[in-house]
Specification:
13 strands; single chain; about 290 residues; alpha/beta; disordered N terminus; two-stranded parallel sheet
């Protein structure tokens, strides 16, 4: 019976995590002048799960592979936290990315969870929205519900507000509701709902007069040309995040089985070491302090 349940879980995960995409730095490509691969086989670490921690994890993976030529890190197509936990439990991946600790029904005797960083969820606009630097809770509620539809009402240009939104089951929308919108606010009928945060980030850079919420860390690390808004007078900065002044914060974590293979353990040590913390901090994330 246990064997059957494991295979059923694996089959469901193949639907959840359909395709793998290799994230590999230049140093992980080891091809000889004749075009054949080096005889030295690389250690592979497969990572999957929630997409929110992916930008930070990919920065860490890139930095790690620059100093470790014998390791290749593959990122499976992102899904959600539950997919990362389940993937580790059945052995499809070595590390699962998560935005919360495992629930009691998801835990296993040897499953380890640890947060590695915090990331602010900022609210930003396209660069065309000039004159708007700060929004209050009531302003956000009016915008996201469609009650106010012109930027001129907030001191901006005479232009229609384009709301780029996320699905209700995504961490970004959950945080917006928790801290600013409330659970009962109806969404604007004209809002454009984008499933992936990466799609929202692409859209806000190319859509004049748009507004959306996404990762501060990714904004800083990629130098995104958007207007970062203060909320109720508090700016979205790593300093305000670390001090607790800026409250709309996401937890970035990973799960793995105890006693991982040596390659996975070495990468885990890097993530929670000084070099990993420096990589995260330089990119605008706040690394978790170890006890």
């Amino acid at each position: 019976m246990r064997f059957s349940r494991i295979w059923m879980t694996m089959l469901s995960l193949l639907v959840l995590l359909p395709m793998g995409c290799t994230f590999e730095s230049n140093q992980t490509s080891n091809i000889s002048s004749t075009g054949s691969e080096s005889s030295q086989e690389k250690q592979t670490i497969k990572i999957g799960g929630a997409g929110t921690p992916y930008p930070a994890m990919k920065l860490l993976a890139s930095a790690y592979q620059k100093q470790t030529s014998g390791t290749k890190i593959d990122f499976i197509e992102s899904s959600q936290t539950g997919g990362g936990i389940a993937g580790v439990k059945v052995g499809l991946i070595e590390m699962g990315t998560v935005t919360r600790p495992p629930k009691p029904k998801e835990t296993a005797d040897q499953l380890t969870y640890r947060e590695f960083a915090k990331d602010a969820l900022l609210v930003a606009t396209h660069s065309s929205v000039e004159g708007v630097k700060n929004l209050t809770t009531e302003d956000l509620r009016a915008i996201y519900s469609g009650q106010i539809t012109n930027w001129q009402e907030f001191g901006g240009p005479d232009a229609t507000i384009v709301v780029l939104d996320r699905p209700e089951d995504e961490s970004g929308k959950k945080l917006l509701r928790k801290y600013y919108l409330g659970s009962d606010l109806e969404n604007s009928p004209d809002a454009i709902v984008l499933r992936r945060e990466a799609d929202l980030i692409d859209a806000i850079q190319t859509t004049p007069y748009s507004i959306g919420a996404f990762s501060l860390g990714e904004t800083i690390s990629n130098n995104l040309q958007v207007n970062r808004l203060s909320l109720n007078g508090v700016a979205p900065t790593p300093e305000n995040l670390q001090s607790g002044k800026y409250t709309m914060v996401r937890s970035l974590g990973i799960v793995w089985y105890d006693d991982p293979n040596p390659a996975t353990q070495a990468f885990i040590d890097f993530i929670y070491g000084k070099t990993g913390a420096d990589v995260l901090q330089q990119a605008g994330f706040v690394p978790t302090k170890l006890e």
